[in-house]
């Protein structure tokens, strides 16, 4: 299995996604809807790309793309792809300033955490007719690329989170990973009998990341944190009360700690057996092998879908998409680059080079992915995975909600009191959708 992004990179990508949402919203729409013709209705030919394509990317991905694009340039000898690699900490400011000023590159990639807010700036062209087959992508990734009735981005890579657990300890205890919420207690008690202090690891940073995990619990309960039209927060509901009670009871019953691990501390906590399970992404096995030696994960690690509540199982989805700006100077070549990046063999090649999993479903049939047992569950999880509310107000509301949840987890307030307080504060913040 190819090396996946390092722990600092993963964390920075998440932070960049949240920061980018805020920066774009603060910058305002870079252009009004309808300022230029959309790409839909036009056709990108099969002839070779020519000219120069300016492509922006953040951090390590931007550093790896130039070498990857050499094959595209070989296939299109009259084109040059210039990649501007921008530090994650500066990416939000750079993109938002470019959109506001109307001085943009030809194409960029969008993180799923901020994609909806980015597309809402009307700065991106719709995907030309026939450029790609939308049915080739995971449905929820393609759906997330829709804006104003048409696709305005093309999925590039994707992942879902899953329930990783110490299989060696679970096997010794004779217990399976929890399939439903009702199974948490039996799993936890059996793992504690094996010496695991906290069988369930939760996101207890008490900020937007905690709120992101609570979003999963909300959906598992059959609820939602926001109305279908994204106009109102729906935090204080019976479904969310059941979700918060389930989350906090794991802590109050002694099955999870309110003090850790933080995201970047999961490897030592997991390796030592201080926690027995943690919801994480497909990079987790490689992290553990990096820390403990190649093969540690195959001997000690198991993976399963997240436990299902009354509304079923879900987890957080992530990834990125490719988009071409309305004001691109070389839109034709940029779209040809996007089409090339969307071909299954090239998505597999990018996975082998960088570790990002393909958004094209057929690419998962390639042995390098299909034969990895840890990725089988990830593929099963992707279609049922969900995103956080795609509204500008989520940045502030999620930070507030995560902080409020800590009061319930430490017994300082009841879950009902926490949800009522969070609802009032969220109403004052608003969703940011008119």
Count of structural domains: 2
Can you tell me the CATH superfamily of the largest domain? Periplasmic binding protein-like II
Q: Which fold does the CATH topology of the largest domain refer to?
A: D-Maltodextrin-Binding Protein, domain 2
Estimated helix fraction:
40-55%
Number-wise, the strands total 10
H/E element sequence: HEHEHEHHEEEEHHHHHEHHEEHHHHHH
What is the CATH class name of the largest domain? Alpha Beta
**What's the arrangement of strands in the largest beta sheet?**
2-1-3-10-6
How would you classify the helix and strand content by structural class?
A: alpha+beta
Largest sheet: 5 strands, mixed
Radius of gyration from CA coordinates:
22 Å
The N- to C-terminal Cα distance equals 46 Å
Q: Could you report the average pLDDT, rounded to the nearest whole number?
A: 90
CATH architecture annotation of the largest domain: 3-Layer(aba) Sandwich
What is the overall silhouette? Answer: globular
| Low-pLDDT ranges | 1-40
């Amino acid at each position: 299995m190819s090396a996946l992004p390092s722990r600092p990179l993963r964390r920075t990508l998440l932070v960049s996604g949240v920061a980018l949402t805020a920066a774009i919203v603060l910058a305002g729409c870079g252009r009004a809807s309808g300022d230029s013709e959309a790409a839909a209705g036009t056709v990108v030919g099969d002839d070779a790309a020519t000219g120069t394509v300016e492509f922006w990317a953040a951090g390590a991905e931007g550093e790896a793309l130039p070498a990857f694009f050499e094959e595209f340039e070989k296939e299109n000898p009259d084109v040059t792809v210039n990649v501007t690699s921008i530090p994650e900490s500066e990416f939000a400011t750079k993109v938002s300033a470019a959109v506001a000023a109307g001085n943009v590159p030809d194409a960029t990639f969008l993180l799923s955490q901020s994609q909806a807010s980015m597309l809402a700036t009307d700065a991106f062209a719709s995907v030309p007719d026939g450029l790609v087959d939308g049915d080739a992508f995971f449905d929820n990734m393609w759906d997330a690329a829709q804006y104003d009735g048409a696709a305005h981005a093309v999925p590039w890579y994707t992942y879902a989170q899953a329930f990783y657990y110490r299989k060696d300890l679970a096997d010794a205890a004779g217990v399976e990973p929890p399939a439903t919420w009702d199974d948490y207690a039996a799993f936890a008690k059996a793992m504690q009998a094996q010496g695991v202090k906290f069988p369930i690891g939760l996101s207890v940073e008490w900020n937007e990341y905690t709120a992101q995990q609570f979003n999963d619990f909300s959906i598992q309960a059959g609820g939602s944190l926001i109305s279908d039209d994204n106009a109102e927060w729906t935090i204080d509901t019976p479904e969310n009360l059941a979700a918060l009670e389930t989350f906090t009871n794991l802590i109050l019953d002694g099955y999870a700690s309110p003090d850790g691990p933080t995201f970047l501390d999961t490897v030592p906590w997991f390796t030592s057996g201080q926690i027995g399970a943690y919801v994480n992404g497909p990079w987790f096995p490689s992290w553990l092998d990096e820390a403990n030696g190649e093969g540690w994960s195959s001997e000690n690690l198991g993976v399963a879908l997240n436990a299902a509540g009354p509304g079923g199982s879900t987890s957080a989805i992530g990834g990125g998409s490719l988009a071409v700006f309305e004001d691109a100077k070389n839109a034709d070549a940029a779209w040809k680059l996007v089409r090339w990046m969307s071909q299954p063999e090239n998505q597999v090649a990018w996975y082998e080079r960088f570790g990002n999993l393909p958004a094209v479903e057929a690419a998962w049939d390639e042995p390098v992915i299909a034969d990895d047992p840890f990725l089988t569950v990830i593929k099963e999880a992707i279609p049922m995975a969900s995103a956080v509310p795609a509204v500008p107000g989520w940045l502030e509301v999620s930070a507030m909600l995560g902080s409020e949840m800590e009061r319930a987890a430490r017994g300082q307030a009841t879950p009902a009191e926490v949800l009522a307080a969070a609802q009032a504060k969220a109403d004052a913040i608003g969703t940011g959708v008119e």
